[in-house]
Protein backbone atom coordinates (compact mmCIF):
# COMPACT_ATOMS: atom_id res chain seq x y z
CA UNK A 1 0.00 0.00 0.00
CA UNK A 2 1.41 3.37 -1.05
CA UNK A 3 1.21 6.10 1.59
CA UNK A 4 1.21 9.70 0.41
CA UNK A 5 3.74 11.92 2.15
CA UNK A 6 2.19 14.54 4.48
CA UNK A 7 3.14 17.37 2.11
CA UNK A 8 1.40 15.77 -0.88
CA UNK A 9 -1.37 17.49 -2.76
CA UNK A 10 -3.89 15.23 -4.50
CA UNK A 11 -5.60 15.27 -7.92
CA UNK A 12 -9.08 14.92 -6.38
CA UNK A 13 -10.69 16.02 -3.08
CA UNK A 14 -11.87 12.48 -2.30
CA UNK A 15 -12.85 12.90 1.34
CA UNK A 16 -14.12 16.48 1.11
CA UNK A 17 -17.58 17.17 2.53
CA UNK A 18 -20.32 17.15 -0.11
CA UNK A 19 -21.19 20.83 0.38
CA UNK A 20 -17.54 21.80 -0.25
CA UNK A 21 -16.85 19.47 -3.16
CA UNK A 22 -18.54 21.72 -5.74
CA UNK A 23 -16.61 24.78 -4.56
CA UNK A 24 -13.34 22.88 -4.60
CA UNK A 25 -13.72 21.40 -8.07
CA UNK A 26 -15.22 24.37 -9.92
CA UNK A 27 -12.62 25.49 -12.49
CA UNK A 28 -14.05 28.92 -13.20
CA UNK A 29 -13.30 32.12 -11.32
CA UNK A 30 -13.84 31.67 -7.59
CA UNK A 31 -14.04 35.45 -7.29
CA UNK A 32 -16.95 35.51 -9.75
CA UNK A 33 -18.75 32.65 -7.94
CA UNK A 34 -18.53 34.45 -4.62
CA UNK A 35 -19.54 37.80 -6.14
CA UNK A 36 -22.65 36.15 -7.60
CA UNK A 37 -23.70 35.03 -4.10
CA UNK A 38 -22.93 38.22 -2.16
CA UNK A 39 -24.50 41.58 -1.80
CA UNK A 40 -21.11 43.08 -0.89
CA UNK A 41 -17.87 41.43 -2.02
CA UNK A 42 -14.40 42.72 -1.31
CA UNK A 43 -10.78 41.67 -1.38
CA UNK A 44 -8.92 42.41 1.85
CA UNK A 45 -5.13 42.37 1.38
CA UNK A 46 -3.39 41.08 4.51
CA UNK A 47 0.17 40.41 3.37
CA UNK A 48 2.32 41.20 0.36
CA UNK A 49 6.11 41.06 0.40
CA UNK A 50 9.16 39.20 -0.80
CA UNK A 51 9.22 36.11 1.41
CA UNK A 52 10.17 32.45 1.35
CA UNK A 53 7.77 29.87 -0.01
CA UNK A 54 6.11 27.10 1.99
CA UNK A 55 8.01 23.82 1.79
CA UNK A 56 5.32 22.19 -0.36
CA UNK A 57 5.55 25.09 -2.87
CA UNK A 58 9.30 24.87 -3.55
CA UNK A 59 9.27 22.09 -6.13
CA UNK A 60 6.13 23.36 -7.88
CA UNK A 61 7.68 26.81 -8.29
CA UNK A 62 11.21 25.54 -8.93
CA UNK A 63 12.57 27.52 -5.97
CA UNK A 64 15.39 26.81 -3.54
CA UNK A 65 14.58 26.75 0.15
CA UNK A 66 15.69 30.30 1.07
CA UNK A 67 14.83 31.98 -2.24
CA UNK A 68 12.51 34.92 -1.80
CA UNK A 69 9.49 35.33 -4.04
CA UNK A 70 6.53 37.70 -4.03
CA UNK A 71 3.89 36.32 -1.69
CA UNK A 72 0.43 37.88 -1.69
CA UNK A 73 -2.29 36.90 0.76
CA UNK A 74 -5.85 38.18 0.87
CA UNK A 75 -9.21 37.33 2.31
CA UNK A 76 -12.16 37.19 -0.07
CA UNK A 77 -15.04 38.58 1.95
CA UNK A 78 -18.74 38.15 1.40
CA UNK A 79 -20.81 40.70 3.33
CA UNK A 80 -17.76 41.33 5.58
CA UNK A 81 -17.31 37.62 6.41
CA UNK A 82 -14.08 35.99 5.20
CA UNK A 83 -14.99 32.99 3.04
CA UNK A 84 -11.66 32.26 1.30
CA UNK A 85 -8.03 32.88 2.17
CA UNK A 86 -6.08 33.25 -1.08
CA UNK A 87 -2.30 32.86 -1.22
CA UNK A 88 -0.28 33.45 -4.36
CA UNK A 89 3.44 33.18 -5.02
CA UNK A 90 5.49 34.22 -8.02
CA UNK A 91 9.25 34.29 -8.61
CA UNK A 92 10.54 37.83 -8.16
CA UNK A 93 12.19 37.88 -11.60
CA UNK A 94 8.74 37.33 -13.17
CA UNK A 95 7.62 40.66 -11.67
CA UNK A 96 9.63 42.30 -14.44
CA UNK A 97 8.03 40.00 -17.02
CA UNK A 98 4.58 38.44 -17.36
CA UNK A 99 3.44 39.33 -13.83
CA UNK A 100 4.75 42.92 -13.63
CA UNK A 101 1.39 44.39 -12.54
CA UNK A 102 0.97 41.98 -9.63
CA UNK A 103 2.74 44.15 -7.08
CA UNK A 104 0.20 46.94 -7.60
CA UNK A 105 -3.05 44.96 -7.26
CA UNK A 106 -3.89 46.25 -3.79
CA UNK A 107 -7.50 45.35 -3.03
CA UNK A 108 -8.21 44.32 -6.63
CA UNK A 109 -8.91 40.68 -7.33
CA UNK A 110 -6.10 38.58 -8.81
CA UNK A 111 -8.81 36.16 -10.00
CA UNK A 112 -10.37 38.81 -12.20
CA UNK A 113 -7.00 39.41 -13.86
CA UNK A 114 -6.36 35.67 -14.30
CA UNK A 115 -9.73 34.85 -15.83
CA UNK A 116 -10.00 37.80 -18.19
CA UNK A 117 -6.69 37.28 -19.99
CA UNK A 118 -7.14 34.61 -22.69
CA UNK A 119 -3.36 34.09 -22.89
CA UNK A 120 -3.19 32.70 -19.35
CA UNK A 121 -3.32 28.91 -19.09
CA UNK A 122 -4.27 27.02 -15.95
CA UNK A 123 -2.89 23.67 -14.83
CA UNK A 124 -5.11 21.01 -13.21
CA UNK A 125 -6.23 21.63 -9.65
CA UNK A 126 -4.57 19.90 -6.71
CA UNK A 127 -6.26 19.48 -3.33
CA UNK A 128 -5.28 19.10 0.30
CA UNK A 129 -6.94 19.03 3.69
CA UNK A 130 -4.81 21.46 5.69
CA UNK A 131 -4.16 20.68 9.34
CA UNK A 132 -3.00 23.16 12.03
CA UNK A 133 0.69 22.40 11.44
CA UNK A 134 0.55 23.69 7.84
CA UNK A 135 1.68 27.34 7.58
CA UNK A 136 -1.24 28.27 5.30
CA UNK A 137 -3.71 26.88 7.85
CA UNK A 138 -2.17 29.12 10.49
CA UNK A 139 -2.28 32.20 8.28
CA UNK A 140 -5.82 31.51 7.06
CA UNK A 141 -7.11 31.19 10.64
CA UNK A 142 -5.32 34.26 11.99
CA UNK A 143 -8.42 36.49 11.84
CA UNK A 144 -11.14 33.88 12.33
CA UNK A 145 -13.14 33.96 15.55
CA UNK A 146 -13.56 30.17 15.68
CA UNK A 147 -10.65 28.00 14.63
CA UNK A 148 -11.70 24.87 12.69
CA UNK A 149 -10.00 21.46 13.05
CA UNK A 150 -8.93 21.52 9.39
CA UNK A 151 -9.49 23.44 6.16
CA UNK A 152 -9.73 22.29 2.56
CA UNK A 153 -7.54 24.00 -0.01
CA UNK A 154 -6.92 23.81 -3.72
CA UNK A 155 -4.12 25.15 -5.84
CA UNK A 156 -3.02 25.42 -9.44
CA UNK A 157 -0.51 27.23 -11.58
CA UNK A 158 -1.52 30.00 -13.93
CA UNK A 159 1.01 30.40 -16.72
CA UNK A 160 1.61 33.47 -18.86
CA UNK A 161 4.55 33.65 -21.27
CA UNK A 162 5.99 30.45 -19.70
CA UNK A 163 6.06 32.16 -16.30
CA UNK A 164 3.90 30.55 -13.59
CA UNK A 165 2.16 31.97 -10.56
CA UNK A 166 0.93 29.49 -7.95
CA UNK A 167 -2.48 30.33 -6.52
CA UNK A 168 -3.76 28.51 -3.44
CA UNK A 169 -7.30 29.04 -2.19
CA UNK A 170 -8.15 27.96 1.34
CA UNK A 171 -11.87 27.53 1.91
CA UNK A 172 -13.00 28.98 5.24
CA UNK A 173 -16.02 27.59 7.14
CA UNK A 174 -18.33 30.45 6.08
CA UNK A 175 -18.10 29.40 2.39
CA UNK A 176 -20.49 26.56 3.20
CA UNK A 177 -23.30 29.06 3.87
CA UNK A 178 -23.16 30.63 0.40
Account of the protein in words:
It is a single chain. The mean pLDDT is 93. The chain is α+β, with helices and mostly antiparallel strands. The chain is globular and about 40 Å long. The chain has five helices and seven strands, in the order ααβαββαββαββ. The protein has helices spanning 18-25, 30-36, 55-61, 110-116, 135-141, and strands spanning 41-52, 68-78, 81-91, 121-122, 126-130, 151-160, 163-171. Strands 1, 2, 3, 4, 5, 6 and 7 form a seven-stranded antiparallel sheet that branches. The longest helix is centred in the first third of the chain and has 8 residues, at 18-25. A hairpin with a 2-residue loop joins strand 6 and strand 7.
The percent range for strand residues is 25-35%
- Secondary-structure element string: HHEHEEHEEHEE
Alpha-carbon distance between the termini?
38 Å
What kind of sheet is the major sheet?
Answer: 7 strands, antiparallel
What Rg, in angstroms, do the CA atoms define?
16 Å
What is the mean pLDDT?
93
Number of strands: 7
Number of helices: 5
- List the uncertain runs: none
- Structural class from helices and strands? alpha+beta
User: What is the overall silhouette?
Assistant: globular
> Helical proportion?
10-25%
